[in-house]
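Translate sequence into structure tokens.
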Amino acid sequence: MEAIASRKRINPPRDASPNALVGKVALITGSSSGIGAAVARELSARGASVVINYGWPDLQGAANEVGNSLNTPWIAVEADISTVDGPAKLVKAAVDKFGKIDIIVNNAAKATLAKVEDTTVNLWDATMNTNVRGAFLVTQAALPYLPPKSEGGGGRIINITSEVATSPEILQTAYATSKGAIATLTRCLAKDLPPTYGCTVNAVSPGIVKTPQFLGELQKMGNAFLTQIFDARTPVDGWIGLPEDVAFAVSFLAEERASWINGASINVSGGMFFD
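Result follows.
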């Protein structure tokens, strides 16, 4: 557990590409905490207006806290991405507020740890509906509001996958399967969408990251699972990753200079995992 506690949040520097995303609108699903909140702060630091998303009323305070930490315009929208109607509700609220969407970050995810024998249909469906269908429906609903290709395009779709898609740990059958589906969805959209919409579609693939959801799941698993994970320490530092590490990779893909990067996946794991 020492590796979990030893690193602290890294705030994005105010002078790092401060104008790179000025005039852009970024929609980030599942952004009231963890990786999504870090992405919101990073993109705002680069000038983007931000659409913060939270799934349930009890997360409104956390979402507003993220918004109040930003220096650019923002809106917080309650929309459950796991439902059929939630993605369209989120996109509508974003467009009603800002009139367009330039950057989509499909981050909302349900992290599940369970034995195969204990993975119920409800647990399986909840994982897939949030992690896979939700990302697809958000992207589909937002397409008409991306910058038109006739005007140069430049939209960015960035999916948060996971290294467990290719290197799963124990107890991750549902979760790893869903992340594998997102990785494939990214490659499919990277072929299908740019010719029509002038956008790019990429993924960021984190390893083990210190988020409230991940730590909560670990608490249930006990020391045996923790030992298995942290015995395989990362070559770079031997640290667990921070949400801000992932957010920096997202911000790189969101910038205009990343226009020739399409269908890629950036590994953010400190070298613990390799494709």
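Note: The two ends are 26 Å apart (CA to CA).
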